Structure of PadR family transcriptional regulator:
Amino acid sequence: MSLKLLVLGLLMEGEKHPYEVQQQVKARGMDCYMKYAKGSLYYAFDQLEKSGMIEVKEVIRETNRPDKTLYGITEKGEEQFQQLLLEELQKPMQLTHPIYAALTFASYGDPQKMDEALEVNIQEVRRLAGLLESIQEEKRERLSWGARTILIGAIEHLHAEMRWMERIREEAWGR
Amino acid sequence: MSLKLLVLGLLMEGEKHPYEVQQQVKARGMDCYMKYAKGSLYYAFDQLEKSGMIEVKEVIRETNRPDKTLYGITEKGEEQFQQLLLEELQKPMQLTHPIYAALTFASYGDPQKMDEALEVNIQEVRRLAGLLESIQEEKRERLSWGARTILIGAIEHLHAEMRWMERIREEAWGR
DNA sequence: CGATAAGTAGTCAAATTTGAATATAATAAT
DNA sequence: ATTATTATATTCAAATTTGACTACTTATCG
């Protein structure tokens, strides 16, 4: 998953250190749809630097704190950004849904327990959908077009998901 | 992603060697929603064996061909299968859609090119949806409940996706 | 006031995933 | 008839991801 696009995209806005990127991801709610361990972010920075897409601008030493390494995007990096942007737009949504694998083997499972597990899932999807909808309402006009569009898409996907999961429960696991 | 559930699930049906699992995944069309490199499958078998979930039943030597290693599921493995089944049912769908990252930075991109890229994506989604729909019609009653249910879910997700992407194009990238 | 949590900034070994390489046989195409 | 492709069956080095750990600072809470 393209951490590289994330890093390049955020560096398009100005110089940043890895931890700052972390913060931005949280602050903008991107953590809903960009899941990764922190380590991967530092790795992405390293790789991008090695290939000349970004470069160190400054190392800030505040007493008794780990150093912050400020990175900026290079010209080559901006080109790479444009290309990655188009590549990601072409990538189809991943149909690799965990439930699909489970459904494949549902006939070997205990319907009662599977029902309980799916209920947990539905609750969680409902919660997330509610959360996103409240963000949509609260922030109304204060969101960028991109952020609004992502919200719309995510909410639609979550609703499709709920309808489908409820149908599975109604059909009582094929029994 | 749970290759382990895949392996255990298929071994529930009887002893198999890794390559046979590969074939089954293709034959049943699971390759639409289980994406992995071949190597990962052998790794999954190794890990499952080390932890006693499966065991070697036989090594078949056909002249001038690589050996096939037949694996069977153990009692411990069957318990693990039941647990994994429930775990996977609880995992929420991944909202980590490649387009989300791209949309976040759409304002730095060329609308014309982005439009072309998205068009490619829409075509591909349309093609896949058509493919799945034709499978749904052709095989009608010959599909298991699980397989039918997966098809229904996948098709619904793809349609939600198309509606959303078309809306993005109509809105002309926020301009 | 002292303990405890939460924030700052990053490193690193271990687990996992990828993708190319190997080596042979059978089938299809020109 | 010979070249090319597909199928069989697996291995392994390299790329990537994870998650635990370090080490210090600033709030928080009874």
User: Anything to note?
Assistant: Strands of chain B lie at 54-60, 68-73. Residues 36-40, 43, 47, 64-66 of chain B lie near DNA strand C (CB under 10 Å from a C1').
